[in-house]
């Protein structure tokens, strides 16, 4: 078995909710959820695929499926990926700002 060089952690908000999982579980199409989970499995192995840096230490995984899903994350050290929020092309700018705010709060803790 291959040992994953990256660990995924989820941002937890002030209400003890995990915004990424709330978003993921709200998706109706189970094939989309499967594709996103498969992508995250590849990230754990170091294969990030299509990535765009959006500023303030936050990056965007682009998933070429459906409406163009995005997963926002930030790196903490070399081994941890913090999943901040997910969205699609229609909510991209708002999602980026939210992800940046979450990352700022995470670093202040």
What keywords describe this structure?
single chain, 3 helices, alpha+beta
Compute the CA-based radius of gyration: 13 Å
Overall pLDDT level = 90
Number of helices: 3
Protein structure class: alpha+beta
Count of all domains: 1
Query: In CATH, what is the class?
Result: Alpha Beta
Largest beta-sheet characterization: 5 strands, mixed
| CATH fold node name | YaeB-like fold
Q: How many angstroms does the end-to-end distance come to?
A: 35 Å
β content, as a range?
25-35%
CATH architecture: 2-Layer Sandwich
Strand order, largest beta sheet: 1-5-4-3-2
Overall 3D geometry?
globular
Unreliable spans = none
Q: Give the helices and strands as they follow along the chain.
A: EHHEEEEH
Helix content class: 25-40%
Please report the total strand number as a whole number.
5
Account of the protein in words:
By secondary structure, the chain is α+β, with helices and mostly antiparallel strands. It has one domain: 2-Layer Sandwich (YaeB-like fold). Helix content is 37%, strand content 28%. The chain has helices at residues 19-26, 30-44, 92-108; strands at 7-10, 51-55, 58-63, 69-76, 80-87. A hairpin with a 2-residue loop joins β2 and β3. The longest helix has 17 residues, at 92-108. The mean pLDDT is 90.
């Amino acid at each position: 078995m291959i040992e994953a060089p990256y660990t995924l952690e989820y941002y937890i908000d002030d209400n003890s909710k995990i915004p990424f999982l709330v978003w993921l579980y709200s998706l109706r199409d189970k094939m989309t959820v499967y594709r996103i989970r498969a992508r995250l499995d590849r990230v754990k192995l170091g294969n990030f695929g299509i990535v765009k840096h959006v500023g303030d230490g936050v990056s965007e995984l682009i998933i070429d499926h459906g409406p163009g899903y995005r997963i926002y994350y930030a790196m903490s050290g070399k081994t941890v990926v913090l999943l901040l929020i997910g969205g699609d092309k229609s909510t991209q700018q708002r999602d980026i700002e939210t992800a940046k705010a979450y990352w700022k709060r995470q670093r202040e803790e």
